[in-house]
Amino acid sequence: MTHYLLRRLPSALVVLAVASFGIFAMVRMVPGDPVSTLAGPDATPEARAAIRADLGLDQPLLTQYVHWLGQLAHLDLGTSYRIGGQVKDLVADGAVNTIVLTLTALLLASLAALVCSVLAVVLDNRWVNAALSFGNTLAIALPTFVTGLVLILLFAVVLPVLPAGGTPPDGFIARPDIAAQYLLLPAVCLALGAGAALTRFLTEALRTEMRQPYVTTARALGISRRRIVLTQALRNALPSAVTVLGIQFGTLLGGAVLVEAIFTWPGLGGLIEEAISGRDYPLVQVLLLLSVTVFVVIQLLTDVVHAWLDPRIRIGGTGS
Amino acid sequence: ACSSAVKEASSGSEDSGPTDGGTLRIGSTNDIVPASIFTNSSDAANTLIGAVYDSLIDYPQDSLDPQPRLATSWEVAKDGLSITLQLRDDVTFHSGREFTSKDVEFSIKTWADPTWTVQLQRTAAAVTGFDTSDPHAITLSFDHPLSNIFDLLDMLPIIDSESFDQLKEGKAYVGTGPFVFTSWTPSSKLEFTRNDDYWGDEPHLDGIEVDIVSDPQAQVSQLRSGQLDLITGASNRDLETLGKDDSYTVTPFDGSVQQIYVGADLANPDLQDVKLRQAIAYALDRQRIVDDVFRGQGTPINLPWPDYSPAYDAKANETYAYDPDKAKELVSQLGSHPTIPLAYSAGNANYEAVAQIVQSDLEAVGIKTELQPVENSQFIKQLIGGTFGGLWILQHGYAHYTPSTLAVSAYPFNADKNASHFVDKQYKEDADAAWERVDGSDSGAVEIYQRLNKDLLDNLFLIEIALLHFTVASSDQVHDLGMSKRGELDLDAAYLSK
Amino acid sequence: MSTPLLEVTDLAISFSHPRPAVRSVSVTVDRGEVVALVGESGSGKSMTARAIIGLLPDGARATGSVRLGGDELLGLGEKAYTAVRGRRVAMVFQEPQTALNPVRTIGWQIAEALRAHGGVRGKAARARAVELLTEVEIPDPEERLGWYPHQLSGGQKQRVVLALALANEPELLLADEPTTALDVTVQAEILALLRRIRDRTGTSILIITHNMGVVAHLADRVVVLRQGDVVEAAGTRELFAHPQHAYTRQLLAAVPRLPEADDGVRVLADAPAPTGEVAALEYDDVSVHYGSRMRGRVLPAVDGVTLRLERGQVLGLVGESGSGKTTLGRLAAGLVPLAGGRVRVGGEDLAGLRGRRRADLRRRLAFVHQDPEASLDPRFSIGEAIREPLDVHGVGSRAARDQRVAELLDAVRLPASFTKRRPRELSGGQRQRVALARALTLDPQLLVADEPTSALDVSVQAEVLELFADLQQRLGFACVFISHDLAVVNTVADHVAVLRAGKVVEHGAAARVFGDPAHEYTRRLLDAVPVPDPTVRDATGPALHEQREQIA
Amino acid sequence: MSESLLDVAAPEASDPDDQFDTRRRPGIWTALGRGKGLAGLILIGVVVALGLLAPLLAPHSPTEQIPGANLVGPSGAHWFGTDEVNRDILSRTLYGIRTDLLVVFLAVPIGAAIGILVGLVSSWWSFTDVIAQRVFDLVLAFPTLILAIALTAFVGPGLRTVFFVIVAVELPVFGRLTRTSVRTVREMPYVEAAHVIGAGSLWQLRRHVLPNSLEPLLVQLAVSMSVAVFIEGAMSFLGLGVRPPQPSLGSLIRDGVRNMYDAPYFAVGPLALVVALVLGLLLVSQALAEARRR
Ligand SMILES: Nc1ncnc2c1ncn2[C@@H]1O[C@H](COP(=O)(O)OP(=O)(O)OP(=O)(O)O)[C@@H](O)[C@H]1O
Ligand SMILES: Nc1ncnc2c1ncn2[C@@H]1O[C@H](COP(=O)(O)OP(=O)(O)OP(=O)(O)O)[C@@H](O)[C@H]1O
Ligand SMILES: [Mg+2]
Ligand SMILES: [Mg+2]
């Protein structure tokens, strides 16, 4: 296991190292610069020069990069040019919202997938399958921005039972019941596509498992189909489902950009858009690097969980 | 106990006169940017400045007649080179410190610092002498008369020098105003509570919460679902729809106006011929833009001034009335010319719609344009660098102040350097003359303004389209809203009915 | 005995396609009896068994009657059938590798089987599991309960499957080819175990197999199936002695046999005398390692092998699974990197050659893969597949190449009309012929054939082997013939090398090695092969039993 | 050549072995002729036909601003109503399809083609593989929309940017897929068989590996095409899409959403078409995938 993890670690680190430089250089290659956005149209050239020097942007690129790396090493993410304040705080605030939203969506998607696919395979009924498959395809085919607006129209405007957007005023912990209501629409909207994709995958995986010889063995022992699905097929489909879950988590994070915009959810999506459009280098850099890091970590994590779930990898070798 | 987030967010309404209490929740499109907190560039920043700070004087909505605020009275020297203001002596900052003339000096000097890039920086910098010997009076002196000194005094917030470092970082905003800043969560919200020691009438509201909701559509949704009480960023069409609904109030404010215009970069050889610019001016169906895009909340104009401005000239304002035939004729005199780029800031629905109408209007008279949505950051850079190379669409402000403020402060009109690359001796002379006067509204001033109007109409480096009113929508529980000329919500008297 | 335990009458099973899978099958099994169901592939053996336990594939319709102890099973609802399965009838499948759930421990799986019938739980279940594992002769049963299937060897897995089937003491055990996937020695152990279980518990067994040796060993009675019909049913001895039906006779005749001790050893020198001529293939102290040294584990798949194959001769490679047969074969074709030693084909070192000369050498060399289906590109027609070597080397005109394809099809006795078909549209035997034709396209001097008949039925295997021997004699190519089936090798090879763990333990003339093995391991291999003769069984039975003990 | 072969025993007619499957395997193409595949093709066909026939079907030019027709609801004159600058939404929708078709049938194939090429090269030469894999990792590490926002900062909004984003997103997807399926196919005995008879790398690649790797790529192509419609829509939604006045389905939906309260009919038509197109492509991909699995 550790061996397994160690084998994957170097390539992950290489990706991160390359990414940090790539991001740093790219961010600076984008036309437009933070000084002009900060100074606004009416600033004098001297004012702009002063701001430029203030931000350290008059230094050579490599010096800036080394400086940034040095900061990162001290876990200092720098100060935002535009929004002001520590990048660390900004990112932390946004990250909490995004993570809560994404994880809730992931949870909803996984639950829906679990229930739907188990139902489909256990019941194995033509009509149930057709209905699930239809709902599934539709859920994948409906763009997020459409479902989001339809949800708002339905549940916040026509039947005003849920908030149209925004985060719970008292945070997530103080009033969980209120928080849940604020979370519901955006999370459902975000979860829809991923849930459908997961359901599709899991149903197919379960069906494949149910065709495996060990299932025939179990059935020949007089174990009921339902029990086999629940205690055996599901357990076997789990490792690969975890991998897909990892991929879906990435997709969800990407989708969050849009959902956050629709539901005015102040997460990383809005932050990154704002940071890029303001050419807020320290913030953009950190956010992009974070994106890569999350991706790399998820990959590592799914690999490890996959390995852990599969005794063939976990234990390995022949005992005899 | 589980309760509904929606129910908690809204409560029943029945107006029975001003009542105390309640937090007003305002939806704002843009978050504040600490580095440019004084630039009037975001609705959240405007709300913050209006709530937390006081200015020395106040202009009423529809005139340029200064009214006392922190200054109780004032006197301008005959030569126009200084002004003495008497200050209130019962004012304290939110920190408890007493307000004195030193604070006025500090505030003006802050605005004169180019790094804050405020529009009136040149005017603030023109204030060269400060006599603060009396803590409750101050004398400001200038190198040359400043016709727009009251504009500065109206716009300038009195800031606390002690907490200035925190202001730079967006951590504290300490003023003398009716509300106390309590917190800012970047890209999420700003919170304020009532200033119980306010020198004026105590506000009715317990507090204000500004939610950053960047999508106009979402603002409307949240207003409708009762999560917000007041929104500042609704599109004009949504405002129109909300206005028809009894549960909502749509309030247009006369005093604070913006002008939408088509800019022309004279570096483009095709645009150098004034005939083409005139053709454009004639080709624009301004009334249609006002009606269709701004749903009637505006006035077609040729010159930027609102009707109470000393520079206002009703006749001149009709110089380029919609006349496509005349435009066609002008175009036919020009011969062929290539397609002209028409830039606007991407993602803004109004600009996009106006740009498309402008394009269509121009095409109808034989002027081909290509729309170029430009990302905002780059748009500003192009504006500063004067690199549009064609036409652009944008809004400007400051025409509702003393006319000279526009010419010396608003970037597109700057006689020294502007995005149009328009350099004209006459224009510069007239602009400076308007500025360096004692009085900005006497008959001599009006004469200069007429010359300025002629410069603007003859040269057409900016082709005005319409004058737009600032309009907010609120739930019917919100009452007695006000708006300063600066475009800041005035919530001193506002209250929420239960 | 009164009524038989199992009574299948006029069972017919059909799918949507016209030819029924099972036309009319009647079988009875008495209490404590072992009945074998034999017949070629696709004759309906598995379908019959699946019908008995009620696990027919989707879309299958069964009619007729299946009675167990007098109760009709056919048409029983899923719930009722679930109660019967495992409790009264149990089944063991062919592939032990996949018959167990890979992510659950052995103990869990046994407990689950017990739980299914409301039996014992907890401690008692654990005790019962240990008991069962002991019964199927798995060492350290206590400890093995926590093991996962992949930690067990193939034979052990099959024992666990057997333990699962026996968990609820069924009256009838269905065993569908329970040993085909196993090595001969392991197969012998499992067969002996089955017999002992029957003796001890009185469980009736219906065993499905195509191996007549297995039948001769185990069965009391034999039922022969052909294309969904029972063609003959008789006591085992009787059937072997006096087969009534022509098909039964054909089946028995097709079974390859090992030389009997008294066959008289063919006169052939053990080591072929060096003729002075260049050998077709020479292995000179070759070694192959798999796995990288970096990660620590190095497997010597082939370890210091020296062998020589003369022109026009056939060298058989035998040995158990994993002994290095395939590796040696692939080595001759230059498909595996050498760790040491030298391989010479026609006197030339394949590894030392580059470019043109390497290509020339390649042309003289052909390779037939074990699985003909996988070795033919599914997109290529038969004609294109056979023609490809000519295309690659640009031999002759287009017309000449097509002519050559026709010749080759002819040579392997396939009709010319097959040129247009795809591999999927051929039977296994036909595909094997195509693979052979393709290998012969360039007139090779050396042919490496890796288990070329393992995917085939006995009768089809016999045909292909005959064809192979015929072509080999006519065309005179040298051949490395790899198989784990000693009897098959015996029919084609001149010389044999017996491999074990990458080393040659014995090599010499085929007749000598098989008739009079010198090495103890060879002898053990030979002894484990079930002889397709029921008369031998009584003599070897106990011997097998002892042998198991030695190996275990 | 050996003549000896000719006199091998006369070919006996091969036993009429009817056990094997003589039916041709229902190829993945046949899957398009029935069920889901057919339904998908019909949906795509209808949308494509509407787009191609736009000049014939559209009552107005997509950019014509009809005097006085500001935000008129659906009527006989304007089936889908008119927009905020007086254009006929039906005409814009029909022409908008063309933009999406361009994205779907041009941008995706271009991205796929480059991706496949890179995948092929990298699966054959291991030193390029390392580089390609890291680059793919890097691109894939960014959520699509973040990539879109970042790219827009470079080149500004417009159809070109949508193209760039789609190519950038699809390239690693196809590169990866090509690599894995090539690696799988390359291990197949029939490729080894070709190697043994002396076929060179290029021959193996061209004749065996590529044709046999094609099917998963085809399935992915259909999936990617539906994703492309999404990307166009989402980018237009965020204001990064096509430049006005050019219509696209995504930008029409965004315009419709801007008028959600006062002109709810606005987005219906474009939405239906987007859903039809995506649904069609999805159904086709599902049909292809199911046929492959069989
Ligand atoms: N799922 C299925 N659908 C359609 N036909 C099937 C199916 N399973 C088996 N068959 C057909 O049923 C017939 C009998 O198959 P069965 O598996 O019983 O043969 P078998 O005697 O066990 O052969 P083998 O020795 O190859 O296992 C075959 O002709 C086969 O084509
Ligand atoms: N590609 C490989 N990587 C690692 N080990 C391998 C590889 N191929 C074979 N081995 C190992 O090398 C040894 C010899 O394998 P080989 O395939 O030559 O055996 P075999 O005699 O052909 O067996 P079988 O009868 O099962 O085909 C085995 O232990 C096997 O596990
Ligand atoms: Mg079978
Ligand atoms: Mg082998």
Automatic annotation (TrEMBL), chain A:
The chain crosses the membrane at residues 12-30, 99-123, 135-162, 182-202, 237-263, 283-305. It is a multi-pass membrane protein. InterPro entries: BPD_transp_1_N, MetI-like, MetI-like_sf. It is found in: Cell membrane. PROSITE patterns: ABC_TM1 (PS50928). The keyword Amino-acid biosynthesis does not apply. Keywords: Cell membrane, Membrane, Transmembrane, Transmembrane helix, Transport. Belongs to the binding-protein-dependent transport system permease family. This is ABC transporter permease. It comes from Nocardioides mangrovi.
TrEMBL record, chain C:
Keywords: ATP-binding, Cell membrane, Membrane, Nucleotide-binding, Transport. Its main location: membrane. GO terms for molecular function: ATP binding. Residues 532-552 are annotated as: Disordered. It is a peripheral membrane protein. Residues 6-252, 281-526 form the ABC transporter domain. SUPFAM superfamilies: P-loop containing nucleoside triphosphate hydrolases. SMART domains: AAA. It is found in: Cell membrane. Belongs to the ABC transporter superfamily. PANTHER family: DIPEPTIDE TRANSPORT ATP-BINDING PROTEIN DPPD, OLIGOPEPTIDE TRANSPORT ATP-BINDING PROTEIN APPD. This is ABC transporter ATP-binding protein. It comes from Nocardioides mangrovi.
TrEMBL record, chain D:
This is ABC transporter permease. Residues 1-21 are annotated as: Disordered. CDD domains: TM_PBP2. It comes from the Bacteria. InterPro entries: BP-dependent_transpt_permease, MetI-like, MetI-like_sf, OppC_N. It comes from Nocardioides mangrovi. Residues 97-283 form the ABC transmembrane type-1 domain. The chain crosses the membrane at residues 38-58, 101-123, 135-155, 161-178, 217-243, 263-284. It is found in: Cell membrane. Belongs to the binding-protein-dependent transport system permease family. It is a multi-pass membrane protein. Keywords: Cell membrane, Membrane, Transmembrane, Transmembrane helix, Transport.
